[in-house]
């Protein structure tokens, strides 16, 4: 093996297992860092950063189910970061697939999913721009990681950028089984950013097993901003829930 090949192999070999992600970032200081961790059970992908989906991939036409096999892998989540002066400046993430071996990244190897989730959601809370937004998504993909309380703090923080707060609201709705009350609070906050409030309404509509229907009905019947009520009514109309049909019947048959 050539000297260059040996040097490259050493460079991409897994780093000291006892090091935390933060310690690795500080030690690398400037360069590329890679790591991977176990994905949530309801996440899969084909190796592309935009190809994972909660609830697995589904096909629109059930008639021909069985003639095509999805290659949506259950993980792991792979993350690559560019680091400058001890701080991440960009994050790329993939579900499934494998590293190509191209480049000379410092490879951390596999880390505990809970540790990864905690570190990335912490980065989201302290970071800015696309790094913070990408860190939100990466954190929510980690198995056995409870990140929604931090995401809720981000969503409520009016000093943070709107797109980051909207991203936090979306993932609260995806990740937390007891998020409905918090999402309703965000939607009903009359002092809040209107786009963030609309995102909270949408997140309620995505809660499983009709969990978001009751709070959406409450919003629709309230005296809140008409834009928020209209948004709630729209998403209620997509649910097909009997409670919603009863509400629409009541509204449509109410005397003028």
Run of helices and strands: HHEEEEHHHHHHHHH
DSSP strand content: 5-15%
Strand order of the largest sheet: 3-2-1-4
The percentage helix is 40-55%
What does this structure look like?
With 256 residues, the protein is of the alpha+beta class. It contains 11 helices and 4 strands, in the order ααββββααααααααα. A 4-stranded mixed beta sheet has the order 3-2-1-4, with helices on one face. β2 and β3 form a beta hairpin. The longest helix is centred in the middle third of the chain and has 14 residues. The termini are far apart. The N terminus is likely disordered.
Short description:
This protein has 256 residues and is of the alpha+beta class. It is 47% helix and 11% strand. A four-stranded mixed β-sheet has the order 3-2-1-4, covered by helices on one side.
Name a few traits of the molecule.
11% strand; elongated; 4 strands; alpha+beta; 256 residues
How is the topology of this model organized?
Blueprint: H1 3-12, H2 21-28, E1 31-37, E2 77-84, E3 87-95, E4 106-110, H3 113-126, H4 129-141, H5 148-156, H6 162-175, H7 180-188, H8 194-205, H9 213-220, H10 226-237, H11 242-253
Parallel strand pairs: 1-4
Antiparallel strand pairs: 1-2, 2-3
